[in-house]
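(Structure overview)
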Amino acid sequence: MDIEISVVVPAYNEEENVELCYREIIDALEPLGISYEIIFVDDGSTDLTFKKLQYLSKNDDRLKVIKLRKNFGQSAALRAGLDCATGKNIITMDADLQNDPKDIPKLLEKLQKEDFDVICGWRFDRKDPFLKKLFSKFANKLRKSFTGETIHDSGCTLRAYVKESTESLELYGELHRYIPAMLFWKGYKIGEIKTNHRERKNGRTKYNWKRIIKGFLDLLVVTFWQKYSLRPIHIFGSIGILLSFIGGIISLYMVILRLFHGVGITDRPLFTVSIMSIVIGIQFFTIGILADVLVKIYYSQNGRKNYLVERIIE
């Protein structure tokens, strides 16, 4: 029987939450009368998370449990779950019980009835500490300015996807936060709904200052990759031409001073700056050419394409 819905739940040291999370997901899906599977990904937990999931899976064929060898991070755990999912539509959510499974039917309804490819949850009334909410608000504004997508809450893991939209996602680091942006750039239709958010009652949050820094660095990588991955020469070459042009103008000015005014130039810092600008500009241009060659190699392997087809009408 074809699976209609796959629910993917990454979990790291959530021994007190996984069973209740599993029960709540079932309570949300059973009234829909559709076939489903639940996939928990144990991201290298050091507590009893895996044993509890293993016990639950013995009594339910709809529950799959994936155990990663070590803690690879939420992005990698999500990718592992998405790779294993067989449903036509996919729900992702956290295992800490802050996402409310009762919102799943609303996500699915909007996904299926309004012709979206992804529906993102919006934690409109967040039940998190003030400092965490402040950092999140700043991160969302920064993300919008970099990426151009406009959803309110890219940090909310509770989302519904058409399976096709998840197949080409490359997830590592903290890139799970930028899934909507990556899909937006690929041409998928992104929607959102307000969802319930609950206080964490058990376990400890995995959010800290290190994740903030990593998330910002990943934002820079994502932005660069999406805008310039097909033609890196456009950015590296532009920087190279600009630096070389500035260096050339300064050098010309110094030569004029030397020829017509008898001013010595070899011991002047401005002359050194001009030569360095030209050299660095040439290096940037060369890097752009090499990056273009690497992109061509990347897309020539394994039949990769630089486009996605939405539909073909014959």
